[in-house]
């Protein structure tokens, strides 16, 4: 996964006059009717060009986060590239209840030659009675070296998933594959395995991610391998983390008369990284990027000047280094000009590169009587893309 951070100033919403001064200073203004027309004529999710508009210095909308009850959350992304032919990349104990597992690992075997591998996730019943497991959400991508596509589609599939009614039974001490697709996939060198699962169990268990030969069942490999490979401390992280879901409330009521502003999530400063524990080392773990954490965002807004509100995003870190040259994400957005639902960002191409490119997420018309409205978004930091993902709110004159 890719994470690039810069210092981001925290600004609150100010009175209209001061706010306008900040906008002038930052250059964050729609430049004439042409750019506004570009926004309003675009299809949802498409890339548009707004020369001279995009900047990280746009005023920030303050927010509060509440940790919501959620599943026990496990991520396997450190080491991202598994360099040993036969290896356990993650092993964590979980209690009865809901579990979210994010698998983000690459076949890194190239010495003495590149070889095909299997990367799979397994679960062992460590309880004394039969364990029952049912999938609540499921997203499994075919291994690929196109990390952007996997990250974007994986999130979209997770958001769309309705779960399964099938209940599997696991005997005490038995190990089974969590995802049969991973058992069948052949992973070539440098290909990414991306699995995103949420399931419920009724016995204590052990969850593991294993790399092995394509012909070896994952449960058999897990039984033979006794140790977990070392963390490289250079990727997002691995372990069991204490936060899986946030409720985000923006401060006050946003008024279109105050001009352009942005919500900044997953920047590591205004929105710190969640923490947990890596069982294999017994040490504290940090999830740099908050990948796999779900943000349920609510923003109240009104229009005292009769304008609507366009929601945009862009790849704000494209200039940082070669690893940030593209961004691809997915999000759930509430009703506006376009219907409520999942939006791929972008929808008309694989990635957005950087300024002057922006992506149109939604356009929200003003209420006829100027009443308050609520925008709702579901966001999770997109794997393979640099962070943060700015959410820019732009007042527009909807005719």
Query: How would you sum up the global shape?
Result: elongated
Radius of gyration: 22 Å
Largest sheet: 9 strands, mixed
The chain-level mean pLDDT equals: 92
Number of strands: 25
> Counting H and I runs of at least 4 residues, what is the number of helices?
5
In N-to-C order, the SSE pattern is HHEEEEEEEEHEEHEEHEEEEEEEEEEEEE
Organism: Pararcticibacter amylolyticus
Protein name: Copper amine oxidase
How does this model look, in words?
This protein is mainly β and 399 residues long. The chain is built from 5 helices and 25 strands. It folds into 2 domains: 206 residues, no CATH class; 167 residues, no CATH class. Strands 3, 4, 6, 8, 9, 11, 13, 17 and 18 form a 9-stranded mixed β-sheet that branches. A hairpin with a 4-residue loop joins strand 17 and strand 18. It is elongated, with a radius of gyration of 22 Å.
List keywords for this structure.
elongated, 399 residues, Copper amine oxidase, 12% helix, 9-stranded mixed sheet
Topology:
Layout: H1 16-26, H2 32-41, E1 47-49, E2 63-67, E3 72-77, E4 81-82, E5 87-94, E6 97-107, E7 118-125, E8 131-140, H3 147-160, E9 167-170, E10 175-177, H4 180-184, E11 192-201, E12 205-212, H5 218-224, E13 237-241, E14 245-250, E15 254-255, E16 261-263, E17 275-278, E18 283-286, E19 294-302, E20 308-313, E21 329-333, E22 341-345, E23 357-364, E24 373-379, E25 391-396
Parallel strand pairs: 3-6, 4-6, 14-19, 15-19
Antiparallel strand pairs: 1-23, 2-14, 3-13, 5-12, 6-11, 7-10, 7-12, 8-9, 8-11, 13-17, 16-25, 17-18, 19-24, 20-23, 20-25, 21-22, 21-24
Protein name: Copper amine oxidase
């Amino acid at each position: 996964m890719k994470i690039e951070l810069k210092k981001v100033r925290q600004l609150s919403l100010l009175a209209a006059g001061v706010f306008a001064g900040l906008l002038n200073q930052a250059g964050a203004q729609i430049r004439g009717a042409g750019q506004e027309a570009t926004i309003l004529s675009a299809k949802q999710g498409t890339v548009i060009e707004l020369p001279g508009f995009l900047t990280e210095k746009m005023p920030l909308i303050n927010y509060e986060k509440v940790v919501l009850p959620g599943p026990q959350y496990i991520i396997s992304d450190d080491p991202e590239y598994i360099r040993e032919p036969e290896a356990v990349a993650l092993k964590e104990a979980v209690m009865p209840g809901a579990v979210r597992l994010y698998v983000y690992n690459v076949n890194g075997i190239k010495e003495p030659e590149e070889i095909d591998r299997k990367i799979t996730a397994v679960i062992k019943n460590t309880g004394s009675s039969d364990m029952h497991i049912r999938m609540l959400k499921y997203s499994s991508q075919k291994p690929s070296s196109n990390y952007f596509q996997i990250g974007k589609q994986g999130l979209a599939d997770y958001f769309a998933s309705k779960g399964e009614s099938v209940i599997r039974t696991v005997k005490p001490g038995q190990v089974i594959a969590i995802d049969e697709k991973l058992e069948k996939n052949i992973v070539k060198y440098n290909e990414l395995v991306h699995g995103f699962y949420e399931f419920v169990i009724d016995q204590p268990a052990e969850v593991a991610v294993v790399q092995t030969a394509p012909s070896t069942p994952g449960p058999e490999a897990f039984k033979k391998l006794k140790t977990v490979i070392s963390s490289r401390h250079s990727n997002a992280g691995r372990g069991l983390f204490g936060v899986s879901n946030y409720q985000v409330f923006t401060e006050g009521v946003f008024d279109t008369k105050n001009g352009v502003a942005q919500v900044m999530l997953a920047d590591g400063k205004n929105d710190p990284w969640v923490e947990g524990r890596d069982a294999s080392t017994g040490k504290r773990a940090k999830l740099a990027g908050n990948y796999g954490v779900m943000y349920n965002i609510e923003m109240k807004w009104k229009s005292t000047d009769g304008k609507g509100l366009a929601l945009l995003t862009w790849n704000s870190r494209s200039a940082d280094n070669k690893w940030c040259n593209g961004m691809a994400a997915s999000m759930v957005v509430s009703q506006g000009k376009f219907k409520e639902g999942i939006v791929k960002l972008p929808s008309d191409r694989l990635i957005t590169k950087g300024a002057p490119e922006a992506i149109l997420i939604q356009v929200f018309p003003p209420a006829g009587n100027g009443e308050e409205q609520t925008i709702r978004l579901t966001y999770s930091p997109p794997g393979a893309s640099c962070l943060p993902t700015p959410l820019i709110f732009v007042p527009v004159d909807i005719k």
